[in-house]
Amino acid sequence: MRIRILGSGAGGGFPQWNCNCANCRAVRAGAAGYSPRTQSSLAVSANGADWLLLNASPDLRAQIAAAPELSPCPDDGVRASPIKAVALTNGDVDHVAGLLNLREAQPFSLYAAGRVLEALGANPIFTILQTQLVPRIELRMDRTIAVTGAGLDLGLSIRAFPVPGKIALYLENANAPDFGTSAGDTLGLEIVETRTGQSFFYIPGCAKVDAPLAARLKGASLVFFDGTLFHENEMIEQGLLGKTGSRMGHINMSGDDGSIAAFAPLDVTRKIYVHINNSNPTLNEFSQERAAIQSAGWEIGADGMEVTL
Ligand code: MLT
Ligand code: MN
Ligand code: ZN
Protein backbone atom coordinates (compact mmCIF):
# COMPACT_ATOMS: atom_id res chain seq x y z
CA MET A 1 0.00 0.00 0.00
CA ARG A 2 1.35 3.43 -0.97
CA ILE A 3 0.50 6.49 1.05
CA ARG A 4 1.42 9.98 -0.12
CA ILE A 5 1.06 13.16 1.92
CA LEU A 6 -0.51 15.61 -0.51
CA GLY A 7 -0.67 18.42 2.05
CA SER A 8 0.83 18.52 5.54
CA GLY A 9 -0.37 21.99 6.55
CA ALA A 10 -3.48 22.95 8.53
CA GLY A 11 -6.22 25.25 7.22
CA GLY A 12 -4.58 28.21 5.46
CA GLY A 13 -1.44 26.25 4.59
CA PHE A 14 2.11 27.51 5.10
CA PRO A 15 2.57 30.36 4.49
CA GLN A 16 -1.04 31.43 4.97
CA TRP A 17 -2.08 34.16 2.53
CA ASN A 18 -2.75 36.86 5.13
CA CYS A 19 -0.32 35.79 7.85
CA ASN A 20 2.81 37.68 8.79
CA CYS A 21 3.81 35.61 11.80
CA ALA A 22 7.52 34.82 12.23
CA ASN A 23 7.14 31.38 10.60
CA CYS A 24 5.16 32.66 7.60
CA ARG A 25 7.65 35.50 7.06
CA ALA A 26 10.54 33.04 7.23
CA VAL A 27 9.09 30.53 4.76
CA ARG A 28 8.10 33.34 2.39
CA ALA A 29 11.67 34.61 2.50
CA GLY A 30 13.03 31.12 1.75
CA ALA A 31 14.87 30.93 5.09
CA ALA A 32 16.82 27.74 5.78
CA GLY A 33 14.88 25.18 7.81
CA TYR A 34 11.38 26.10 6.58
CA SER A 35 9.36 24.31 3.85
CA PRO A 36 6.05 25.47 2.38
CA ARG A 37 3.06 23.22 3.02
CA THR A 38 -0.28 22.88 1.29
CA GLN A 39 -3.48 22.03 3.14
CA SER A 40 -4.40 18.80 4.82
CA SER A 41 -4.80 15.69 2.64
CA LEU A 42 -3.38 12.21 1.94
CA ALA A 43 -3.66 9.87 -1.05
CA VAL A 44 -3.62 6.07 -0.71
CA SER A 45 -3.37 3.26 -3.25
CA ALA A 46 -3.15 -0.51 -3.04
CA ASN A 47 -2.11 -0.98 -6.69
CA GLY A 48 -0.37 2.33 -7.50
CA ALA A 49 -2.94 3.03 -10.22
CA ASP A 50 -6.23 3.74 -8.46
CA TRP A 51 -6.23 6.24 -5.61
CA LEU A 52 -8.35 7.11 -2.60
CA LEU A 53 -8.00 10.69 -1.31
CA LEU A 54 -8.33 11.29 2.40
CA ASN A 55 -9.83 14.77 2.55
CA ALA A 56 -10.01 17.17 -0.38
CA SER A 57 -8.16 20.39 0.37
CA PRO A 58 -8.53 23.79 -1.30
CA ASP A 59 -5.01 23.13 -2.70
CA LEU A 60 -6.05 19.93 -4.46
CA ARG A 61 -5.40 21.21 -7.97
CA ALA A 62 -1.76 22.00 -7.13
CA GLN A 63 -1.44 18.74 -5.17
CA ILE A 64 -2.58 16.74 -8.21
CA ALA A 65 -0.14 18.64 -10.41
CA ALA A 66 2.69 17.76 -7.99
CA ALA A 67 1.86 14.02 -7.96
CA PRO A 68 2.18 12.46 -11.44
CA GLU A 69 0.24 9.36 -10.26
CA LEU A 70 -2.87 11.47 -9.81
CA SER A 71 -3.12 12.68 -13.40
CA PRO A 72 -4.58 10.68 -16.32
CA CYS A 73 -2.18 8.25 -18.03
CA PRO A 74 -1.41 9.22 -21.65
CA ASP A 75 -3.14 6.02 -22.86
CA ASP A 76 -6.37 6.68 -20.96
CA GLY A 77 -9.52 7.93 -22.68
CA VAL A 78 -10.14 11.63 -23.25
CA ARG A 79 -11.64 11.99 -19.79
CA ALA A 80 -9.95 9.95 -17.04
CA SER A 81 -8.62 10.18 -13.51
CA PRO A 82 -6.79 7.77 -11.20
CA ILE A 83 -8.74 9.37 -8.31
CA LYS A 84 -11.54 6.88 -7.74
CA ALA A 85 -12.74 7.81 -4.25
CA VAL A 86 -12.54 10.48 -1.56
CA ALA A 87 -13.11 9.96 2.17
CA LEU A 88 -13.61 12.87 4.58
CA THR A 89 -12.71 13.09 8.26
CA ASN A 90 -14.92 16.12 8.92
CA GLY A 91 -16.68 19.01 7.19
CA ASP A 92 -13.98 21.63 7.76
CA VAL A 93 -13.24 23.98 4.87
CA ASP A 94 -9.67 22.70 4.55
CA HIS A 95 -11.02 19.16 4.10
CA VAL A 96 -14.00 19.66 1.78
CA ALA A 97 -13.36 22.71 -0.41
CA GLY A 98 -11.23 20.62 -2.80
CA LEU A 99 -14.32 18.62 -3.77
CA LEU A 100 -15.17 21.58 -5.97
CA ASN A 101 -11.94 20.96 -7.91
CA LEU A 102 -13.25 17.49 -8.77
CA ARG A 103 -16.20 18.71 -10.83
CA GLU A 104 -16.17 18.09 -14.64
CA ALA A 105 -18.51 15.09 -14.58
CA GLN A 106 -15.92 12.52 -13.52
CA PRO A 107 -17.17 9.49 -11.58
CA PHE A 108 -15.76 8.76 -8.11
CA SER A 109 -17.22 7.80 -4.73
CA LEU A 110 -17.49 10.14 -1.78
CA TYR A 111 -17.38 8.67 1.74
CA ALA A 112 -18.19 10.71 4.87
CA ALA A 113 -20.05 10.60 8.17
CA GLY A 114 -23.80 11.22 8.05
CA ARG A 115 -23.33 14.60 9.76
CA VAL A 116 -20.86 15.73 7.10
CA LEU A 117 -23.03 14.44 4.24
CA GLU A 118 -25.87 16.50 5.75
CA ALA A 119 -23.71 19.64 5.73
CA LEU A 120 -22.68 19.03 2.10
CA GLY A 121 -26.30 18.24 1.17
CA ALA A 122 -27.47 21.53 2.70
CA ASN A 123 -25.08 23.51 0.48
CA PRO A 124 -26.20 23.65 -3.17
CA ILE A 125 -22.69 24.42 -4.45
CA PHE A 126 -21.83 20.73 -3.94
CA THR A 127 -24.59 19.68 -6.38
CA ILE A 128 -21.88 20.42 -8.97
CA LEU A 129 -20.87 16.82 -8.10
CA GLN A 130 -23.91 15.07 -9.54
CA THR A 131 -24.94 12.17 -7.33
CA GLN A 132 -25.38 9.80 -10.30
CA LEU A 133 -21.64 10.19 -10.96
CA VAL A 134 -20.44 10.84 -7.43
CA PRO A 135 -22.42 8.66 -5.02
CA ARG A 136 -22.31 9.90 -1.42
CA ILE A 137 -21.75 6.95 0.87
CA GLU A 138 -22.19 7.18 4.62
CA LEU A 139 -19.35 5.98 6.81
CA ARG A 140 -21.04 4.20 9.71
CA MET A 141 -19.05 4.08 12.91
CA ASP A 142 -16.90 1.03 13.52
CA ARG A 143 -18.03 -0.74 10.37
CA THR A 144 -15.57 -1.86 7.73
CA ILE A 145 -16.56 -0.72 4.27
CA ALA A 146 -14.82 -1.74 1.03
CA VAL A 147 -13.75 1.23 -1.06
CA THR A 148 -15.14 1.22 -4.59
CA GLY A 149 -15.29 3.98 -7.15
CA ALA A 150 -15.99 4.40 -10.85
CA GLY A 151 -16.94 0.71 -10.98
CA LEU A 152 -13.66 -0.52 -9.45
CA ASP A 153 -12.74 -2.20 -6.20
CA LEU A 154 -9.71 -0.31 -4.87
CA GLY A 155 -8.47 -3.17 -2.70
CA LEU A 156 -8.82 -0.96 0.38
CA SER A 157 -11.36 -0.67 3.12
CA ILE A 158 -12.18 2.05 5.62
CA ARG A 159 -13.04 1.65 9.26
CA ALA A 160 -14.27 5.01 10.59
CA PHE A 161 -14.59 5.85 14.26
CA PRO A 162 -15.49 8.98 16.21
CA VAL A 163 -12.70 10.90 17.95
CA PRO A 164 -13.02 13.81 20.39
CA GLY A 165 -13.37 16.99 18.35
CA LYS A 166 -15.61 19.81 17.30
CA ILE A 167 -18.25 20.67 14.73
CA ALA A 168 -16.97 22.59 11.66
CA LEU A 169 -16.28 26.26 12.43
CA TYR A 170 -18.94 27.51 9.98
CA LEU A 171 -21.58 25.33 11.66
CA GLU A 172 -20.80 26.35 15.25
CA ASN A 173 -23.82 27.37 17.31
CA ALA A 174 -22.66 29.77 20.04
CA ASN A 175 -25.77 29.02 22.12
CA ALA A 176 -25.56 25.24 22.09
CA PRO A 177 -23.49 23.10 24.45
CA ASP A 178 -20.09 22.36 22.90
CA PHE A 179 -21.09 24.64 19.96
CA GLY A 180 -23.53 22.02 18.70
CA THR A 181 -20.92 19.29 18.31
CA SER A 182 -22.21 15.73 18.20
CA ALA A 183 -20.75 12.29 17.57
CA GLY A 184 -19.55 11.87 14.00
CA ASP A 185 -18.45 15.49 13.55
CA THR A 186 -14.81 14.39 13.71
CA LEU A 187 -13.64 10.98 12.56
CA GLY A 188 -10.50 8.97 12.64
CA LEU A 189 -10.06 6.62 9.70
CA GLU A 190 -8.30 3.27 9.69
CA ILE A 191 -7.41 2.34 6.12
CA VAL A 192 -6.92 -1.38 5.56
CA GLU A 193 -5.28 -3.00 2.54
CA THR A 194 -7.55 -5.93 1.69
CA ARG A 195 -4.86 -8.24 0.31
CA THR A 196 -2.44 -8.00 3.22
CA GLY A 197 -4.66 -6.83 6.09
CA GLN A 198 -2.10 -4.11 6.83
CA SER A 199 -3.52 -0.85 8.04
CA PHE A 200 -2.74 2.67 9.14
CA PHE A 201 -4.63 5.44 10.93
CA TYR A 202 -5.36 8.94 9.68
CA ILE A 203 -6.51 11.38 12.38
CA PRO A 204 -5.82 14.98 11.26
CA GLY A 205 -8.19 16.54 13.79
CA CYS A 206 -8.49 15.32 17.37
CA ALA A 207 -9.11 17.16 20.63
CA LYS A 208 -7.93 14.46 23.03
CA VAL A 209 -6.47 10.97 23.13
CA ASP A 210 -9.10 9.40 25.38
CA ALA A 211 -9.03 5.80 26.61
CA PRO A 212 -10.94 4.26 23.65
CA LEU A 213 -8.68 6.02 21.15
CA ALA A 214 -5.54 5.00 23.04
CA ALA A 215 -6.73 1.38 23.06
CA ARG A 216 -7.42 1.49 19.34
CA LEU A 217 -4.00 2.94 18.48
CA LYS A 218 -1.99 0.69 20.80
CA GLY A 219 0.62 -1.18 18.76
CA ALA A 220 -0.38 0.41 15.42
CA SER A 221 2.26 0.33 12.68
CA LEU A 222 1.57 3.83 11.34
CA VAL A 223 -0.45 6.83 12.52
CA PHE A 224 -0.81 10.22 10.83
CA PHE A 225 -1.96 12.49 13.64
CA ASP A 226 -3.16 16.02 14.43
CA GLY A 227 -0.07 18.24 14.68
CA THR A 228 -1.89 21.58 14.59
CA LEU A 229 -0.29 23.38 17.53
CA PHE A 230 2.72 22.78 19.73
CA HIS A 231 1.46 24.90 22.67
CA GLU A 232 -2.13 25.45 23.79
CA ASN A 233 -1.68 29.25 23.67
CA GLU A 234 0.63 29.75 20.71
CA MET A 235 -1.93 31.49 18.48
CA ILE A 236 -2.85 33.91 21.28
CA GLU A 237 0.78 34.57 22.23
CA GLN A 238 1.70 35.34 18.62
CA GLY A 239 -1.28 37.72 18.31
CA LEU A 240 -2.82 35.63 15.50
CA LEU A 241 -6.18 34.50 16.87
CA GLY A 242 -7.72 34.67 20.32
CA LYS A 243 -8.27 30.92 20.54
CA THR A 244 -6.54 28.12 22.37
CA GLY A 245 -5.86 24.77 20.74
CA SER A 246 -8.64 23.19 22.81
CA ARG A 247 -11.14 25.82 21.68
CA MET A 248 -10.28 24.93 18.08
CA GLY A 249 -10.82 21.22 18.79
CA HIS A 250 -7.14 20.31 18.50
CA ILE A 251 -4.90 18.56 20.99
CA ASN A 252 -1.46 20.18 21.40
CA MET A 253 1.83 18.37 20.87
CA SER A 254 3.33 19.44 24.22
CA GLY A 255 2.15 19.31 27.82
CA ASP A 256 0.82 16.67 30.17
CA ASP A 257 -2.33 16.20 28.11
CA GLY A 258 -0.60 16.66 24.75
CA SER A 259 -0.10 14.10 21.99
CA ILE A 260 3.59 13.43 22.74
CA ALA A 261 2.66 12.33 26.27
CA ALA A 262 -0.46 10.47 25.15
CA PHE A 263 1.39 8.39 22.55
CA ALA A 264 4.39 7.61 24.75
CA PRO A 265 2.92 4.32 26.10
CA LEU A 266 1.20 3.26 22.85
CA ASP A 267 4.06 1.49 21.02
CA VAL A 268 3.12 2.97 17.66
CA THR A 269 5.88 2.05 15.18
CA ARG A 270 5.72 5.20 13.05
CA LYS A 271 4.06 8.44 14.19
CA ILE A 272 3.80 11.31 11.71
CA TYR A 273 2.31 14.73 12.45
CA VAL A 274 0.10 16.25 9.76
CA HIS A 275 -2.29 19.26 9.69
CA ILE A 276 0.48 21.46 11.09
CA ASN A 277 -0.55 25.06 11.65
CA ASN A 278 1.64 27.92 10.44
CA SER A 279 2.11 29.09 14.06
CA ASN A 280 3.71 25.80 15.15
CA PRO A 281 7.38 26.23 16.20
CA THR A 282 8.23 22.70 14.96
CA LEU A 283 7.94 24.08 11.39
CA ASN A 284 11.44 25.44 11.99
CA GLU A 285 13.71 22.44 11.46
CA PHE A 286 16.32 23.95 13.75
CA SER A 287 14.00 24.72 16.67
CA GLN A 288 14.25 23.08 20.08
CA GLU A 289 10.58 22.09 19.70
CA ARG A 290 11.45 20.13 16.52
CA ALA A 291 14.27 18.41 18.39
CA ALA A 292 11.85 17.61 21.23
CA ILE A 293 9.27 15.90 19.02
CA GLN A 294 11.99 13.98 17.18
CA SER A 295 13.50 12.70 20.37
CA ALA A 296 9.99 11.53 21.34
CA GLY A 297 9.95 9.45 18.13
CA TRP A 298 7.71 11.72 16.03
CA GLU A 299 8.21 12.79 12.42
CA ILE A 300 6.88 15.96 10.85
CA GLY A 301 4.95 15.18 7.68
CA ALA A 302 5.98 17.00 4.53
CA ASP A 303 4.20 17.56 1.24
CA GLY A 304 5.13 14.82 -1.22
CA MET A 305 6.39 12.46 1.51
CA GLU A 306 5.56 8.83 0.71
CA VAL A 307 5.25 5.84 3.00
CA THR A 308 4.92 2.28 1.78
CA LEU A 309 3.32 -0.28 4.08
C1 MLT B 1 -9.53 23.41 11.95
O1 MLT B 1 -8.79 22.47 11.66
O2 MLT B 1 -9.67 23.77 13.12
C2 MLT B 1 -10.32 24.05 10.86
O3 MLT B 1 -9.73 23.81 9.63
C3 MLT B 1 -10.54 25.49 11.14
C4 MLT B 1 -11.17 26.21 9.98
O4 MLT B 1 -12.11 25.71 9.35
O5 MLT B 1 -10.69 27.31 9.66
MN1 MN C 1 -8.24 22.14 9.66
ZN1 ZN D 1 1.64 32.51 9.99
Automatic annotation (TrEMBL):
Pfam families hit by this protein: Lactamase_B_2
Q: Does the keyword Magnesium apply?
A: no
Gene3D superfamilies per UniProt:
Ribonuclease Z/Hydroxyacylglutathione hydrolase-like (3.60.15.10)
Instruction: Outline the extent of the Metallo-beta-lactamase domain.
Output: 51-276
Q: What CDD domains does the annotation carry?
A: PQQB-like_MBL-fold (cd16274)
InterPro entries named among the record's database cross-references: Metallo-B-lactamas, PQQ_synth_PqqB, RibonucZ/Hydroxyglut_hydro
Its pathway, per UniProt, is:
Cofactor biosynthesis; pyrroloquinoline quinone biosynthesis
> Where does the source fall among the domains of life?
Bacteria
Enumerate the UniProt keywords alphabetically: PQQ biosynthesis, Transport
Q: What function does the entry list?
A: May be involved in the transport of PQQ or its precursor to the periplasm.
Report the family membership.
Answer: Belongs to the PqqB family.
Which HAMAP family does the annotation name?
Answer: PQQ_syn_PqqB (MF_00653)
Its protein name is Coenzyme PQQ synthesis protein B
What organism is the protein native to? Methylocystis borbori
Q: What is the lineage of its organism?
A: Bacteria, Pseudomonadati, Pseudomonadota, Alphaproteobacteria, Hyphomicrobiales
